[in-house]
Amino acid sequence: MNWEKYGLRIGVQKESLLSSETVEAAVVALVGGQFQFPPNTVLVSAVYAVSLSKPLLKRLKLEIQHCVDLKGRPALSRHLKFAIAPVSTPSLPYLFSIVEGGEFSSNSGYGFIERKEFCLVCILGEEWTNGRSDDHDDDNIDSDDDDDTSSTGQPGASGACKESTKETNLPTNTVSVADPTTTPNTDHVNILQSTGVKEAMTYAGLIYYEEKGVEDLVTFAAVRDLNTLIEFIKSDSPRAERGQHVYFCFKDNDGCIELKFGTEQEKDITGWTIDPHMKPCRLHRHIVNKFGEANYPLPPSCLISVYGSPGAVPTLHYSIPLEGVADPILLPPPLM
């Protein structure tokens, strides 16, 4: 079963069903929701709701696309984790917890895990480490072990979601120091370091536009997951024309990207007016990361009005430099 355009692949092993049986799989890619993730983690994939009409005899292979570039840095894979949350919950938000297992190849932008049952599922990245990030207590990690009869379902879980979902105690962004009246003992100091996950996160930018009477309204949006953005555009602006997308990395961990207007153009733009609605036209990384959360239902974007006078050149070719990225990018213009 292939939903690659949504960033998802599902593999079914042989002899997972009796010859007389059929199973239906339902998959929903969630653009946003009231999600709560464990501390010291950042969402690096879309969130999917996966369900089966009946249990399988063997585990299902679930592959999810993520936005962390592992090429040349395979050690980063140990800081990527699968997480789940029960669909049925007595109150929001959906509480995600880390699950053990899963593999992440440096030759692919996907991670995979084998499980029999699913609820809400995604991939998270650890942001900081104190040197003991691999020493997780097995009692604090959810397991899909068929022989584990002592686990209990999280309150509110039902059906396929009755799984142990205890939260992993990941290292938090704090530093322990000795009492100021005593001699510091460096053996008890946790020096937090970045895992490198945020630095390796790849983002997607996309220009799309619609005709709005005398003007064309152009939108540039930046997100972590391009598939999620495309689904949002289909739902929110079904008549929009999409331009070329680009991938980029932020130059600074807590920085921003900026669209630069008024630069010299290779093509003639006589008779055209390009007017950004926001000046300066900047998108901050921490806001881009929040898209999909409860209070951030819209993708971070810059709106641009484009007007053509009666004597304008027939076609507008207007390129926009994108600053604040690791490698220089010139946004390809939509044809108008």
What does this structure look like?
- With 336 residues, this protein is mainly β.
- It has two domains: 2-161, Chondroitinase Ac, Chain A, domain 3 (Sandwich); 202-331, no CATH class.
- The chain is 6% helix and 34% strand.
- It is built from three helices and 24 strands.
- It has helices at residues 197-200, 226-236, 285-288, and strands at 2-3, 8-12, 25-30, 35-36, 41-43, 47-52, 60-65, 80-85, 94-95, 97-99, 103-104, 110-115, 120-126, 128-129, 193-194, 203-212, 215-223, 241-248, 256-259, 272-276, 281-284, 301-308, 320-323, 329-331.
- Strands 3, 5, 6, 8, 10 and 13 form a six-stranded antiparallel beta sheet that branches. The protein has a five-stranded antiparallel beta sheet with strand order 1-2-7-12-11, with no helix packed on it.
- Strand 11 and strand 12 form a beta hairpin.
- The radius of gyration is 23 Å and the shape is globular.
- The two termini are 38 Å apart.
- Residues 136-149 have a biased composition (Acidic residues).
CATH architecture descriptor text of the largest domain: Sandwich
What is the overall silhouette? globular
Q: What's the count of strands? A: 24
Examine the coordinates and then state which fold CATH places here, giving the name of the CATH topology of the largest domain.
Chondroitinase Ac, Chain A, domain 3
Major sheet attributes: 6 strands, antiparallel
How many alpha or pi helices?
A: 3
Number of domains: 2
Q: Determine the mean pLDDT.
A: 79
Using only C-alpha atoms, the radius of gyration works out to 23 Å
**How far is the N terminus from the C terminus?**
38 Å
Kindly name the structural category. mainly beta
SSE string: EEEEEEEEEEEEEEEHEEHEEEEHEEE
Indicate the percent of residues in helices.
under 10%
The first-level CATH class of the largest domain is given as Mainly Beta
Low-confidence runs (pLDDT<50, min 5 residues)?
Answer: 133-141, 145-184
Oligomer: single chain
